[in-house]
Amino acid sequence: EALTTSQVAAISTTSLVSLDATQVAALTATQVANLTATQIGALTTEQAASLKATQIAAIETLDLKSMTTASFAALTSDQIGALTAGQAANLTTAQIAAFTTEQITFLETADLAALTAAQIVALSSTNMAQLSTAQIVALTATQVTALTTAQVAALDTAQLQALETADIKALTGAQLAGLNTEQISSLTTTQ
Q1: What is the spatial distance between Cα 19 and Cα 5, in angstroms, rounded to a whole number?
Q2: Banded pLDDT at 7 (limits 50, 70, 90)
Q3: 10 Å Cβ neighbour count for 94?
Q4: Closest CA to 187 of 164, 172, 136
Q5: Confidence band for 152, pLDDT divided at 50, 70 and 90
Q6: What's the sign of the alpha-carbon dihedral 57, 63, 69, 71?
Q7: How many Å apart are CA 81 and CA 54, to the nearest integer?
Q8: Cβ(106)–Cβ(81) under 8 Å?
Q9: Tens digits of per-residue pLDDT, 67-123?
Q10: How far apart are CA 80 and CA 40, in angstroms?
Q11: Which pLDDT belongs to residue 29?
Q12: Letter string b/e over residues 68-89, b meaning 16 or more CB atoms within 10 A of that residue's CB
């Protein structure tokens, strides 16, 4: 903790990788915020998993994109919940695809709403099925239109009922054709 932010930023990736998880967890949020994209990309899965939620939230938005998918997949649910909407909006599609079924449930609604259409398409159908109704409500019509037919077909009846009228109107013919009879009959009269 005694290192200045400029000293932390000057640590080589080789030296950074040699830190154990306890040492990485001891960095302050300010020190973590000053890690470079190269340093973030060099974090091992063990180091990434050791970061506190406050440290994750402190990572510069564009630097977070450098984290490997393996390290990203190692993040805990608390760490995923600490992501800011700005960070979420700048995740790579590979990082989005790396979400585990547990991680996706901890993505805040504001974070989910901040995702681009390309990021939404990167979610697996399995992860779509894990979204809460609150997360489904957070989807925009643009995001709903971008969903693949497999993603839409993975939604259960409660999730479909959570779609807002504008979202239902945004569904394409192919998306609607991919729904089964139970899903279609679950739509409310206002949808």
Answers
A1: 16
A2: confident
A3: 12
A4: 164
A5: very high
A6: negative
A7: 10
A8: yes
A9: 999 999 999 999 999 999 999 999 999 999 999 999 999 999 999 999 999 999 999
A10: 16
A11: 94
A12: beebbbbbbeebbbbbbbebbe
**For the chain, first and last CA: distance in Å?**
55
Whether residue 1 is predicted with pLDDT greater than 70 in this model: the reply is no
- Tell me which DSSP letter residue 19 carries: S
Burial of 6 from C-beta contacts in 10 A (0-12 / 13-18 / 19+): exposed
Q: For residues 171 and 139, is the Cβ–Cβ distance under 8 A?
A: no
Residue 54 corresponds to which amino acid?
A: T
User: Helices (H), strands (E): how many in the chain?
Assistant: 23, 0
pLDDT digits (tens, 9 = 90+) for 9-47: 788 888 888 999 999 999 999 999 999 999 999 999 999
Structure tokens at 82: 């600490």
Mean pLDDT of the chain: 94
Q: Which residue is it, tokens 């080789």?
A: 14
What distance in Å separates the CA atoms of residue 83 and residue 108, rounded to the nearest whole number? Answer: 8
